[in-house]
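Protein in question passed on here:
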Amino acid sequence: MLLMQSLSQRRAGKVVSSSIRYADVKPVNASGMGSMPRWLQTTVKNPLVSFETPNTGDLGIQAGVYGALMVLNYVNGASASSIGPYAGADVPGLILATSFGASLYFITRKNIKLGKATVITIGGLVAGAAVGSVVENWLQVDIVPFLGIYSPAVLVSEFILFSQFLVSLYLR
């Protein structure tokens, strides 16, 4: 009796659920990701790294920290020509280590795990080094000084500091 009642309701078009009406037709993927493997679909839906807009407080603090490191790096590079290129300690290396630690701190402050923050920071370091090396090869500051910078390491370090600033500010 229940089956006959259900059949007569379906014939009359009185269906409770809209998914029952066309039960024999397979649903079409509206996103167009039907041909992609499942692991790629989950990666596209849940990206490993995302962008975010920073609030003004974080922007001010990080701009101050990285700005101070950039100025210190520039002053060290501009004053190295009078002393000699290898006379003192490795100040650009110390500045880069400080910026690496600051970037880790600022990224983990956004409630991101240390492993992911380390990968993001290393990615920013590599990207800055790549861009800085390309610019340094184009300018060749050891032959023709640019804005008082005589050392290629200082110019590349400036680009690394700037990329660390952007990575710690915008990536999540």
